[in-house]
Amino acid sequence: MEYKAPTIGLPALLLHLFRHVSRRRRYQFLLLLGLTLVSSLAEVVSLGAVIPFIGILTQPEKVFNYPLVKGFVQGLGILSAADLVLPLTIAFAAAALLAGGLRLLLLWVGIWIVKATSADFSVEVYRRTLYQPYCVHVTRSSSEIISGISLKVDNVSTILASLVSMVTSAALFVSILATLLVIDPVVAMVALISFGTCYVIIAWRTHRQLARNGRCVAQEQTLVVKSLQEGLGAIRDVLLDGTQATY
């Protein structure tokens, strides 16, 4: 009888994974969340600086005479619109570089935490396996254990990476969307509805196929390791019998 892996929902799976994450990793994930918020704020500042930067290049006098801008720049000792171009250019470039640098840092930290958590899972799976009684080891296939430690934990790493990417992308998306709604609500709403509809359709059409593919991959990974172990473990018989094609 063919074994079928049980189906578990994504929220239940994430909750189950989180229970096995160490306290140290949980704190690191919280720090990652804080870095995400800082990066989102930097994106808002960088995006919000586009309009003043374009305005000072095209209509410097109009920007300079704006009440809020005029009071601020005069306090800095800038008395003409021409003198405002260079400081705003530097400020815009610094904001863009800061936002880009924070996004790179966010990506690096996210990947590091995911890989470190995946390594923790691998060590914990192997540790629990080694402490099982001998009767369990006799009845359990070693290919299943090796597949679980070396391959299936990588799938967990993929899930965590996708989750981290989803959270960070959602935070950046909300911050950028809020800024665009302030700048031009009509264009922002049209873009949101258009891209949102496309993503919903794609997710609805592919989620069942992805679930079937995931179950198939989980089953076949164990069979791959089993075939490798049996073929290499009995290599003498394979060479004598000429059964290479079978394996």
Question: What can you see in these coordinates?
Answer:
- The chain has 247 residues and is mainly alpha-helical.
- It is 86% helix and 0% strand.
- The protein contains 10 helices and no strands.
- It has helices at 10-19, 23-48, 50-58, 60-64, 67-75, 82-130, 134-139, 142-183, 185-233, 235-241.
- Helix 2 (23-48) runs parallel beside helix 8 (142-183) and helix 3 runs antiparallel to helix 6 (82-130).
- The two termini are 22 Å apart.
- Mean pLDDT is 78; it is low at 1-5.
Number of helical segments?
10
Q: Helical percent range?
A: over 70%
Global structural class: mainly alpha
Q: Note poorly predicted spans.
A: 1-5
- Beta-strand proportion: under 5%
Morphology:
elongated
Our measurement of the CA-to-CA distance between the termini, rounded to an integer number of angstroms, reads 22 Å
Number of strands: 0
Overall average residue pLDDT: 78
Provide the gyration radius in Å.
Answer: 28 Å
Major sheet characteristics: none
Order of helices and strands: HHHHHHHHHH
